[in-house]
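Bit of a strange request maybe. I'm writing a small parser for structure token strings and I need a real example to test against, not something I typed by hand. Could someone generate the tokens for this chain?
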Amino acid sequence: MDGSDSDSSWFTLSIAPSDCHSNASEWVLDTGATYHICPRREMFASFEKLDGGVMLFNDGRICCVERNGAVRIRLYDGTMRDLNEVRYIPRMTKNLISVGGLKAKGLRGTLGEGILKMSSGSLVVLKGIQRDNLYCMKGRVEIGNLVSSGQLNGAL
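Reply from user aminoacidic:
Good idea to test on real output. This should exercise your parser:
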């Protein structure tokens, strides 16, 4: 695939070795990921079949993107948010939050003192804490119903 291909069903991903991230419920804020990704079906609060879409690993492996959905997270400050457009890829081993995807939704990223903050204006809506060379989301997934999409700042 050359760099001129604009087909959004293809994307590449590079991740750190698995020993850098051992907790299956942790979410890594990834500046190189095109999409939010989760390999665990039970984390999804909503789910829909995704027609087409594959993921190409740097080593040449290809796997299918099976579904798309939303994951409900409780942030560091207790706020509940829906992380939307999360790709379900069972062959992945990490949960990834695409920093670029959040920026495309209008959030701004700032980095300093071991913290990656994603903000909307002056409101910090997501925070990652540095561990080794990764930034892990400060918060956790909540299994259950989604926050109403009509709530202010309820979705990422």
